[in-house]
Structure formats: C-alpha cells, structure tokens
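User: Hey, quick favor. My workstation is busy. Could you predict this chain's structure for me?
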Amino acid sequence: MYMSIKKLDDGQYQVDVRPKGSEGRRYRRKFSTKREATAYERYIQAQAHNRAWIEKSSDKRKLSEAISLWWRYHGQLLKEGAQSKKKLENLSQRMNNPMLCQVTKKRIIDYRSDRLSSGISPRTINKEVALLSGVFTQMINAEEYHHEHPIIGLRKLKERKQEMAFLSSSEISFLLQHASGDMKKIAKICLATGARWNEANDLRAENVTPYRVTFVATKNGNNRTTPISKELFDEISSEKSGRLFTPCYDKFYLFFKSLNFNLPKGQAVHVLRHTFASHFMQNGGNILTLQKALGHATIQQTMEYAHFSPDYLQDVVALNPLNERP
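Assistant: No problem, here it is.
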C-alpha cells in the first residue's frame, strides 16, 4: 500500500494515498492541518480494509469439510466428541451438505422449521444448532474461516419446561430388587451420589477409597469426589486395578424400560440422578451441597430441585404483609 502526507509550500497538507498499491485508485486531498490530513488518511485506509473484507470470495467448501476441521481442532478433545461429530454429520446430511457460504441465518431458520414440522422438540433442535455454531466458532478461532459467524445473534427456540420425574422409595426398592450384578452396583452409585450413569460405569478401582468415590472426566471436565457409606464401599470396592464394571448402559436401559415406571417421554436412566437430587432436598438437604454433589457449574441449574425442600418458600407465610397487622 502506497500512502503519503506531504506539507506544501503554502502550509497546507496534501494526502496522496493508493490503498491498493500503485495499480489501485489514487486519493488526493488538501487540508489546512496535519491532524485533518492524518484523519483522512486513516479513513481511506479503513474503508479500503472494510471493502476488502466485504469482497472476500465466497467460501465454497462443504459443511462436511468444516466438521472434519472442527474434529481435528476441538472435537477429538471432548469426552463426548465422537457422539457430537456423528450428530453434526447427520445434521449436514439433512441440510444436503451445503457450501459454507450457503449456511446463513435464513438457512438455519428454515432447517429449524423443517425439524419442528417433523416432530423434533425445540430442546433437541437448539442443541443441534449449538453444535453447528461451535463448528464455525472453532474455525474462526483457528483462522480457517474469514466471514461473519452465521449463527451468532440467532435466538434459540422457546423450550417447554420438562416435567421433573423421579422414583419413589417403593420404586427404588423394586428396581434394586430386580437388578443384579454390575447393573445393580452402578444403579446404587447413581442413587447414592447423583452420578450420571456413564460416570459411575467408568469408575476404576483407584477411584474408590474409604469411603468416597471420585468421578473423573465428567461432563464439565472436572473431577468430582463424593462420600459414600461403608456398606456401599464394601459392595463396590475391589482389589483389582482398572475398570470396576463392564459397560452395560444399553442392557440396563432395556431392563429399566421393562419395569414400566410410567415416566414422562424421553426420560429413562438419567432419572436415577434426578431421584438422588429430589430425595436429597425432600430430606432437608442444602441446595449448595447439592450443587457440589451434582457438579453443576451454576446454582441456577441446581435450583430446579429447590421446590422439593419441605421448607421451600415457607417464609412467605410468616413474612407476608398480612401478618404485619396488629
């Protein structure tokens, strides 16, 4: 880029700018002060930069290629990265694997509408779009994508509040009466600590010490240690090293569904975690302790269980203004 500010014999300052080099357009203008000349020079330079950004060629790479780059830079580091990659690939197929320049807010809005029409819940669709947004974010961070992020600023679909289901004491007894082997031990760990099924299923012998368990590589990436009873420790501890249990989610899922607990649609094995939290609060547990036990990043996530507390909002009765009357 060629540019120059020159003071003339009459005391004025002349700006002589070629933002795109000697072959580009030339801008010349005179000013009475150097400050005005410098401001104009910077203005011309900024305009040229902005136009160059606008005139960048369309990115004609396919969305599938962007997903591969996301996996390379970020996805493979995630605990559930392989599952997320599969979901992204399915999303790309449903969108007919468009070029990146074709992934616009309008295209995403149309995709969401089609998914809603086919009976997919807003919650699921929001998760899909969030995954896709992450692909563009990682590409921009890696300087692989030089256009506007197509999803930033797009509002989420409004989600209906899902009913919070949990097992009663009699249902817990029924479950443990019919479960056996590793499935029964893992279910007990989930009910005793609020662990997710995979967190409990992935426990290794070195993660179990008297009288606590440490869940590693959790959903938020942080380790979490939770106390357990001596009885549960004696039942699950082992002198061997390595994994304590064989993977058995699919087997337990089928077994759990066969018990017909009449849970809301879409809720199954994860209800063990809800059951722990709900009974914890019903028995007078502290909401902050529950947050730590569940490993929630914010108290807002844990507040979903606050209404189970027997003392929840009881101060409303004692402290409302009607009680102030003589």
